[in-house]
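Progress report, Aim 2. The chain analyzed during this reporting quarter is listed below.
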Amino acid sequence: MASVEPNLPVDRVTVWRGDITDPPAELAVDAIVDAANESLHGGSGVDGAIHRAAGPRLLEHNRTLGGCPTGSAKLAPSFDLADRGIAHIVLTVGPVWHAGEHGEAQSLGNTHEDVLLANCYVQSLRLAEEAGARCVAFPAISTGVYGFPKDRAAKIALGHVLGHLGQHSLPERVVFCCFSEDDADLYRTLIDTRGKWLTSRRRVPPL
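Predicted structure tokens for the chain:
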């Protein structure tokens, strides 16, 4: 991928549907984010796929980290994924969605889960930047078995990624890796309509 200096943060964002462990070479992804659990010992979904692709040394390494609290992030080598151009794995633990279980209205940014999810993106971007990663790929953290509403999670993700890119030169590009074309379309729609919802949301402060 040619080195280009984008003018706007949104120009540094790519939406892609595919396997986060095997991004196409043209995306030049050198760091991926693992939606892990607090033990960091592997699980299902994206977490399991990353552990399988990175090989058993990832689990051996993670056992030395002492776990990771929800909303935090830790850095690991890519191990067997190095052959695919990936140098770093950022381990982050998203929140389980409990807000609104009793039907109460909750505006974006007003729940504890919102803050924890926002912090996943803030901390992951910070670690990727410190590692010198030029392109980092995120899954849709917490939107699988953890039940976080997809639209809400995508707004939190986009808001904080765009905020980071507006103030930092690294990573040069962020890729939102989506499981389905419907998920990818959601991100594309939110990017196109960001002028409406970004100005009305309550910014979620990091922990």
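The first strand starts at residue 13 and ends at 17. The longest helix spans residues 112-130. These observations will guide the mutagenesis work planned for the next reporting period.
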